Amino acid sequence: MVTCYPMLSTAPRPSLIYRPGIRTLPLGVERYIVRGAGSTVVSVKAGDGVVLADIEGGQACEIAFCDETGRFDASALGARANSHGEGLKAQLAEDSESTQRMKSALQRRNIDLGKAETVRLFGEDSRAGASAEFKVSRDGVLIVAVPAAAMAPENQDTATDIELRITRNGKTNERSSILPEPLADPVQDIRIRASTASAYVVKAGEYIQVIDVSGRQCTDFQALSARKVDKGLDLALDATVTRTLLGRSYPAPGLPSKSFDREFEPLVEIVQDTVGRHDAFALACTSRYYDDMGYPGHVNCTENFNHALAPYGVRPRKGWEALNYFYNTNIDHQNQLYLDEPWSRPGDYVLMRALTDLVCVSSSCPDDIDAANGWDPTDIHIRTYAAKQKFSRAVVTRMTPDADAHLTKETAFHPRFSALTRNTTEYRGYWLPQRFNNDGPIEEYWACRENVTVTDLSPLRKFEVTGPDAEALLQYCVTRDIRKLSVGQVVYTAMCYENGGMIDDGTVFRLGQNNFRWIGGDEFSGQWLRQQAEKMGYKAWVRSSTDQLHNIAVQGPKSRDLLKEIIWTSPAQTAIGELEWFRFAVARIGHFEGAPIVVSRTGYTGELGYEIFCHPKDALAVFDAVWEAGQKYGLKPMGLEALDMVRIEAGLIFANYEFTSETDPFEAGIGFTVPLKSKSDDFIGKQALIQRKEHPRHRLVGLDIESNEAVGHGDSVYMGRSKIGVVTSSTRSPVLGKNIALARVDVLHSEIGTGIEIGKLDGMQKRLPGHIVRFAHYDPEKLRPRS
Q: If we measure between CA atoms, which residue out of 703, 702, 689, 698 comes closest to residue 747?
């Protein structure tokens, strides 16, 4: 019998692989984001096309061209200069790491800002997406600046990003990537060609930058103490020692940053990392690996290392341990080590600091038989910098998959908080304290419950929503009834997709008839608002103000008494002592001429509390006033660990814990933000939410754990062998004296008093008993924040 199979009507589709950093842009097109109040410089050649776009609208920018001698000439862009670069000069007058880098870039090209001639584009009336095009007629450099003044907290003249796209003239290919601008003047510039390796010497204190030139290329890095090499000892970086001492897979900027040799001597520390996915489990590739895969004689990193290190007297090895930068590996649930294409994009890098004199070796991995290098090995570039240079510790944050990399920043309050602790963590692009010296999370917790605390919450995403259709836009995009919101009021709301799944939760401030401020946790929420405005044809602007408004939370039963002493309000504003729950006031610190602020009676602790918003330039004055006045009230700083404890007790939800895009507001425990009966206007997700409310599947509940053993996020909730839910958050409650948790469980098993078990180990071998209790554990009527 012969079996016949139908012929395919079309040829199989190839895998769709978007080159990293280029995304879906055609070859030869480069995209740069110039941050609000920032600037950039990019080399261009004759024939290149340039497009500038005002992404969010209402943002002025300046563009200039300098030829190869450093002379300004706008005619090379086919334009006429209409300003002398006042915005660029003002931006470069700031003392920051980014401006110092920009100044160095200009100095290397002999560009004199005193002779600046620029073309000023866009302005407060430009629409979102407005663009301008230029054609470059000569080789040189392009300078783009985004000028902005300091935004007062009660105003909405924020600074937003400008997009720069360059279409390169001439032939381009997948490998034609331009190296990023040096972080400073390099001491060494070393190109490591594909499938090769190079050794180099670095002095103690100097910096080593390992750059992926074209993206998706692995590089093995190894270092040996030069002092020990001189003695005939080749004690290289040891991944097992490093993992053991750090308690993590590989080092990262921050506290767990160092790498050690076999004698526990730290050799390098990681300062900056724009990728965040590397490997320290596998050896650098060896001849044995390729032999066993059927490719005998294949070039490999280990033999390249041996050849490069031979002049230093380092003995060859059959397999070298290494920090395998950009190598994307992980361990699955079956305990198998697997690999996939690297996360790195063109220009991504790791920056290290040498802790002693080193002999270093770096490779460009030659693996072309699997996905380790995206099937196509390319170059690696090494730069070293002098020890006198200063680079901040940072990891990369991309708030959306297609966003450009943003290195971790310090909030404007960081100088004060960092004087009280070194225990910080990256949170949504900023360094925030986890706990403070001498006190710790338990004492910080009790200060919040009994006295008053101050917490840095500047990473919250802020967006200014303005224009004649601003109210209509928010009415359509959030679940609460914005038409009922008065000037001076705040409302907590959800933002949903069409299927009812949550995008974000946050607050809406009404500053005027057509003036609103959206504050949430996710950068995408602002993009979503802008997309809906365009889709619906609303005349409304949605502009980010996160970098223009930093904020601290002053929380606890004594917070009102503290702030009444230091905050001045005009007769037209509600005094702090009179400010009710979910209201805000425009105010100043101390007196009529004090630092301008916006104070809202809101918080994330379940206590009476306030949040103070100010421009970063005024942050230290605001903090100092709060700190000094708070001493007699027992004021203490509170970090993220204690904040998590109080918010779990109070039943306050957290993104990617209590809700995701698959969770609706009812399942997330905030069904009160969806007034289906009283809000007659249509809004995104309304029809889906009507159905999901009528046919609920899950409910957020409180759990009391009848054990002193901790449970954690992701632990399964069981009834017998049946899994009925998952723990979303948990903590040891000091005020209740027991372990508690929040969990999303099947609605059929969500009644108060229902007995459950938390699965540990594999979920079956160990169970911790518990039962469902009233939600929330602490002050379920919210009497304390209302008081």
A: 698
Residue of 36, 364, 80 lying closest to 216 (CA atoms) = 364
Rounded to whole angstroms, the Cα distance separating 283 from 286 reads 8
Residues in the chain: 787
The distance from CA 729 to its chain's CA centroid, rounded to whole angstroms, is 22
DSSP string across 610-661: EEEEE-GGGHHHHHHHHHHHHGGGT-EE--HHHHHHHHHHTT---BTTTB-T
The more confident residue out of 105 and 625 is 625
Report yes or no on whether pTM surpasses 0.85: yes
Long-range contacts formed by 11-20: CB under 8 A, 24+ apart: 17/341, 17/374, 19/174, 19/215, 19/216, 19/346, 20/215, 20/216, 20/342, 20/343, 20/344, 20/345, 20/346, 20/348
- Residue 19 in this model has a pLDDT that exceeds 80: no
CB atoms within 10 A of CB 19: 17
Tokens (6 digits) for 737: 């004296």
pLDDT tens readout for residues 183-195: 999 999 999 999 9
* Number of neighbouring beta carbons within 10 Å of residue 55: 20
At 399, the pLDDT band (50, 70, 90 cuts) reads low
> Which pair of tokens denotes residue 765?
């071998």
**Whole-number Cα distances in Å, 635 to 138, 424, 444, 557, 638:** 61, 20, 9, 11, 9
Asked if residue 264 lies in contact with residue 204, where contact means CB atoms within 8 angstroms, the answer is no
pLDDT at 657 over 50: yes
Q: pLDDT confidence of 448, banded at 50, 70, 90?
A: very high
Helix axes 524-536 and 470-477, enclosed angle (nearest 10): 110
Q: Could you write out the DSSP letters of every residue in 305-318? A: HHHHHGGGTPPP-S
Cβ-Cβ contacts under 8 Å for 101 (sequence gap 6 or more):
181, 183, 184
What whole-number distance in Å separates Cα of residue 637 and Cα of residue 448?
9
- Please name which of 736, 652, 758, 735 lies closest in space to residue 700, comparing C-alpha atoms: 652
Strand order in the sheet with 550-555: 567-568, 584-589, 596-600, 609-614, 550-555, 453-456, 636-637
Supply the pLDDT for residue 174.
Answer: 53
Q: Are 598 and 573 in contact (CB under 8 A)?
A: no
**pLDDT above 90: percentage of residues in the chain:** 81
313: left (phi over 0), alpha (psi -120 to 50) or beta: left
Question: Helix axis angle, 559-566 relative to 619-630, nearest 10°?
Answer: 120
